[in-house]
Amino acid sequence: MLEDFQKAIDDAINKGMPLKGWLDKDDTYHPGFLDAFDEIVKKHGWDYKGGRNWRARVIYETNLRTSYSAGRYQQMTDPAVIKAYPFWEYKHAWERVPAEPRQQHEDWDGLVLSADDPWWLTYYPPNDWRCSCGVRPVGRSKLKRMGKIGPDPSPTIQYVEREDPGTGEVIQYPDGVGMGWAYAPGRTWADGLVPREMQKPLKPAGLKLPKPDPVKPDLSTLAKPTTIKPLPTGQSDEVYVSAFLEQFDADLHEPSLWRDKAGHVLVISDDLFKTGDGRWKVKKFGREINMTYLADSLKDPDEIWVDWQQDHAGRVRLVRRYLRYFADLAGFVSFAWSKHGWEGATVFNATKGKANKPDPRYLERQRRGALLYRRDQGKEKE
Hints:
single chain, alpha+beta, three-stranded antiparallel β-sheet, 12 helices, globular, disordered C terminus
């Protein structure tokens, strides 16, 4: 259904399709986005919330406005444009005057900041559903005519408690921006409609990997003290897997959504411990008794990396790796990107030799691609 809507939106953008269909002078009907909306709803049996016209307009206007924002962002971040217009001005009601304006958006009207001010990474409009705010580039001469000798002070971002719709957790979220809009939509669209990890510089799969970067800190220096103990031996596969899943409020029959240290929502389920044909892969290399260590490797990793990987069938996948160094264990968790999002691939404690001794060198070999997160000497740092 989302793919069908994406095609309809692409048609609206590329062909100038209006929201509503229209008749030309020859009484020929030209369909609009509402017609495509009706076809998609009928095809998939979507039981949407709200009225037809309202729901279709939200989808239509949000996507077109974000696409327009991307075009503006690309234009204004061109090096030549930045040189001529090094400042940006927040404009409330840039596209239309809202019937019920948002107070904070009105308060930001006329705010002039440097184009590279970090504030824009959170509040570059649109900042909510049907937000009509925009950004205007400002040169130095225009700044003087506005009576300013420099950019305005960067506002302090205030945070409020909101419920994370992805996980249901109560989190601290920037005030004045709708849930899910606390980023620069135009910047993201300008970089491409892909997972944000794919926007990072990654070498194509199959190239010879360079030697490890000597500036990487030793994983042992990132290690965080723990009071975790191994689980008892002799338990069933289900007991060990349950010990892992309960750390994420999941169980064998009910997966959970969980947001990692790099900000992505993952599905946590028993699939992490099953082969492709559904068999358990639990009791190997002492993995079963170390389930609580492995859960902590995912919840509180030392590092998170993303890179391309070629599997045994020759398929190239984007893989997300979680690394955690313990004094007596090397924790490793992996997720792979698919059409369904990030899917759990495997969890194990890296070992070597017949004695299954911890193998931190295995973790070293996984420190490649793009670094998404690194703990800073025991302190969380993204």
